[in-house]
Amino acid sequence: MQRTELKNTRRCVVKIGSALLTANGQGLDRDAIAGWVAQMAELRAKGIEVILVSSGAVAEGMMRLGWAQRPRALFEQQAAAAVGQMGLVQAYESCFQQHGIHTAQVLLTHEDLSDRQRYLNARSTLRSLLGLGVVPVVNENDTVVTDEIRFGDNDTLAALVANLLEADCLVILTDQAGLFDKDPRNHADAKLIDTASANDMSLEALVGEAGALGRGGMLTKLRAARLAARSGAATVIAHGHEVDVLASVLAGKTIGTLLSTEQEPLAARKQWLAGHLQLCGELMLDDGAVRVLRESGRSLLPVGVTAVSGEFERGEAVACVDQKGSEVARGLVNYNAVEAQKIKGLPSDKLETVLGYVDEPELIHRDNLVLC
Fold this sequence. Notes:
By secondary structure, this protein is an alpha/beta fold. The chain has helices at 18-21, 30-45, 57-65, 74-97, 110-114, 116-131, 154-165, 218-228, 245-250, 268-274, 287-296, 337-343, 351-355, and strands spanning 11-16, 49-54, 103-108, 135-140, 169-174, 195-197, 234-239, 257-260, 281-285, 305-310, 317-321, 327-332, 369-371. Strand 11 and strand 12 form a beta hairpin.
């Protein structure tokens, strides 16, 4: 994708991070919020659908509660999120109302997007809101989510929302000008990367850690871009305080870093599968099985599995790893962990002899399998 193609965007996910929203920990920067809302209202006036993924609830709650540092305990973070979410929603609602635009609060957990029925329900609801001209304001449901099933950062959530709604573009607004070839905080000669592939794994060596208020960092933004690319969405990382940043990005101007995608969009079901962040088990594959999956796009047969770990039931998501432990694919298994342990390494015509029955000849059917 070239920058000029961003002019064709009809549906855009905009993610705004905590460092921008909270004026360096002093509470919500309402003037800045009003500016971004005005820009999003201009996009809506041009016929571009906008979905806003906003951080800031915990940081705003900390300010309201008088806490100087982000709490470590999950229940305290959840309490801060519950308090701060009130201020966050009020700020967006009042700003959008000035432009005659309704907003809708949408709080999601990983379980909402990993369960197929809830995933489809969330997609239908969000599409209905867009059809009504409403701007959804999406955040993680921090008040109820646990460490084990949280997205971990809103960059990831924004990418999954881009997948969910098949958005054309994901714009991540942050407190940096984009992705640099080295950390600009430590190297005065750091150069901004204008364009790169979202699937270029070497980029991860360039990034630093997250700030004090947020959970993410540039690394999570790179991984979010890679996830968004699965549905064909390009990602732009840009400084949120650039003048008319959203209009400039979608006009194809040289601003921030464009992480483009060269791959064809995955089928909707495989996008959903690729977005699973919590996997229930792991299948180790021999070299032949890895080669077949990567080169032929075929189903995974039990004969190619050398080891099984984890506790999973039929239909749950598992990782498929090579002999070095690197994930090569993930999919929905046709057999539970006990059954998979019994049939690993066996040809499909031996399954009935071992199990006494056969549900499917494949351990994972290709329709339920996505490469990583």
